[in-house]
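User: Can you help me understand a structure? I only have the sequence.
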Amino acid sequence: MQRTSLAGMHCSVARTLDIIGEWWTPLIIRDAFVGQVRFDELQRSLGIARNVLADRLATLVAHGILERRRYDERPPRDEYVLTQKGRDLFPVIAAITAWGDRWTAGEAGPPLLLVHEPCGQAATVRTTCDQCGELVSLDNTSPTPGPGA
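Assistant: Let's start by predicting it. Here is the structure, written out as tokens:
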């Protein structure tokens, strides 16, 4: 079934989901964050069909989130390395992880911890205002038309 493109919507959430909102795509990005960047590694980790993985990787490369790099010539093999645009998705995946840890982890707790290397402690990513440093929440923000409105 062909899905409807959200790329033309006048909404940053919709345009972002048009690129990274397909089933499996956030998990591919998650795996790239932890260094699984080769096709076979991703396929094994996710248990995803090879044709679906190839399609998702092609989309991520086309949008500049991953860069395809050859690591072997015989046979030709590539790895998929995060670009800066892809690395900038880290807070998005970390926020989804934090939500899942809070609401879906169950009694056993989170399956993975993000350890902040400078202090050595498990960290939860929080959204703060880049102007004043305070936490940003639904209760203390209001939508206002931006320059692209």
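Now, to help you interpret it: The beta strands are 66-72, 77-82, 115-116, 121-122. The two ends are 32 Å apart (CA to CA). Let me know which part you'd like to focus on.
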